[in-house]
Amino acid sequence: MHAPAPVLPRTLFLDTHDVARLIGVLGLPACLRGLAGTLRADYLRWPEFDKEARIAAYSEQGTIELMPITDGTHYSFKCVNGHPGNGRHGLPTVMAMGALLDCDTGMIRLLSELTLTTALRTAAMSALAAQVLARRDSHSMALIGNGAQSDFQALAFATLLGVRELRLHDLDRRASERLARNLAAAELPGRPLSVRLCDSVAEAVRGADIVTTVTAFQGRAQVLDDALIEPGMHLNAVGGDCPGKTELDPAILRRAEVFVEFPPQTRKEGEIQQMPADFPVTELWRVLAGDAPGRTRADQVTLFDSVGFALEDYSALRFLQAQAEAHQVGTWVEVTPGQADPRDLYGWLQGELRGEQRGEQRGEPQSRPALVS
Ligand code: NAD
Fold first, then answer.
1. Is residue 283 part of a domain?
2. Count of beta carbons in the 10 Å neighbourhood of residue 204
3. pLDDT tens for residues 49-86?
4. Same-domain pairing of 317 and 297
5. Does 361 score more than 50 pLDDT?
6. Which of 176, 203, 215 is the pocket-test mutation for ligand 1 (most atoms within 8 Å of CB)?
7. Could you tell me if 74 and 209 lie in one domain?
8. 156, 264, 353, 373: which could join 123 in a potential S-S bond, CB 3.0 to 4.6 Å?
9. How far is the CA of 170 from the centre of ligand 1 (A)?
10. What are phi and psi of 242, to 5 degrees?
11. Interior angle at CA 158, CA 209 and CA 77, nearest 5
12. Is this entry keyworded Transferase (predicted)?
């Protein structure tokens, strides 16, 4: 009997430049469509996943969260922060990284940036929810909060729902101007986007088919008042995503039909943290699977109380892995040592210290075998 040939435990590493390159290769609309398709396929497998609410460390400045999930074949996690005051340090509010592992062996298959990817997957998820919850004739959206996530939200709704009219509002006018400039330069198939900057939330929301709130404030904000909500609107509330951090007037929750990702997490972190523990909600996967109704009337107010769930990062990591391998993007790295005798870790270290292994060149980027140069 031969011993099995040693498997070199190589890990595919994707940094932000790699993910940007992938988006360049695929095109952003195709990327959003591909991600939404992967999200949908994985949400339809909901019962197969071992799910838990994310594990969070809260401080006065923000949150650091660990988001694990597995379907028994792959295990993934994301580590992400939310620090609304980070602009003071020249840092983004949200930054993330994550990994995908094989359940059979525990091998780390993929290590990836997830900051850019979080913006993409959140936007694709918002649009996927709106596809089953918003009125079919929706063509206009108010976008409140015009920071890092907002461009992706706008482009996902334009790509996946055909939204063509955007009304932008932010407390900081320069944020809306930045977003408007980026949207004017964005290449989208079909009719061009019409973009209007609004001085108030009320001006942006009046007559809109969809309202997306994606603001960052470490506290109970009331970005949307109940008086502004019109029959038939779909609300996509993205910014309230941890305990004590909300965006909506609770009166809106009482009259809207509320859809959530994973109730145990959303009850702690979402808009519905403002409501009693038995507040009725519908799990979005049931709507996608045809097990529960989404919108039932044209005049109904629907709300996707988005907080971001680990399944979405699992989908994003699987999507990235498939695309990176198909398009030869990324770098192979040795996150774990590849010793010939798996039990001789010490021997591997000695060889490494004697410079006998490739690791002697570590630190020189070109020493890593790139999938593409
Ligand atoms: P960002 O800091 O880049 O932008 C936030 C913007 O909101 C800023 O331009 C700020 O001026 C504006 N703002 C704050 N309060 C406002 C108010 N009351 N009215 C209008 N504008 C206001 O942050 P970002 O990366 O775009 O993230 C936005 C929010 O989305 C954060 O709270 C983040 O935690 C959340 N988020 C949620 C998910 C999810 O899956 N649900 C995923 C990613 C980020």
1. yes
2. 24
3. 999 999 999 999 999 999 999 999 999 999 999 999 99
4. no
5. no
6. 215
7. no
8. 156
9. 10
10. -160, 165
11. 105
12. no
CA distance 74 to 80: 20
Distance 49 CA to ligand 1 centre (A): 29
How far is residue 328 CA from its own chain's centroid? 23
**350, part of any domain:** no
Whether residues 49 and 157 fall in one domain: no
The encoded tokens of residue 166 equal 């955007």
Domain check: are 97 and 167 in the same one? no
47: CA distance to ligand 1 center in Å? Answer: 31
The 10 Å CB-count burial string (b at 16+, else e) for 61-94 is ebbebebbbbbeebbbbbbbbbbbebeeeeebbb
pLDDT in tens, 261-301: 999 999 999 999 999 999 999 999 999 999 999 999 999 99
Indicate whether residue 154 lines ligand 1 (CB < 6 A): no
Asked if pLDDT for residue 355 goes beyond 70, the answer is: yes
Which of residues 307, 326, 358 is at a domain's end? 307
**Catalytic (active site) residue 241:** yes
| 322 and 294 fall within a common domain | no
Q: Which amino acid is at 297?
A: R
Q: What is the mean pLDDT of the segment spanning 234-240?
A: 98
| Pocket lining: 316 vs ligand 1, CB cutoff 6 Å | no
Which are the contacts of 13, defined by CB distance < 8 A and separation ≥ 6?
A: 110, 111, 112, 330, 331, 332, 333, 335, 368
Where does the pLDDT of residue 367 fall: very low under 50, low under 70, confident under 90, or very high at 90 and above?
very low
Q: Are residues 109 and 133 in the same domain?
A: no
Number of domains, the chain: 2
- Verify that 243 and 166 share a domain, yes or no: yes
Q: How confident is the model at residue 358 (pLDDT cuts 50, 70, 90)?
A: low
Q: Are residues 148 and 96 in the same domain?
A: no
Does the CB atom of residue 239 touch ligand 1 within 6 A? yes
pLDDT digits (tens, 9 = 90+) for 20-55: 999 999 999 999 999 999 999 999 999 999 999 999
Q: Which of 61, 86, 93, 211 to mutate to test the pocket of ligand 1 (most atoms within 8 A of CB)?
A: 93
Any domain includes 102: yes
CATH number at residue 43: 3.30.1780.10
| 157-190 pLDDT per residue, tens | 999 999 999 999 999 999 999 999 999 999 887 8
Q: What is the CATH number of the domain that holds 288?
A: 3.40.50.720
The C-alpha atoms of residue 20 and residue 364 are separated, in whole angstroms, by: 22
Q: Which domain holds residue 51?
A: 9-114+311-339
pLDDT of residue 356: 78
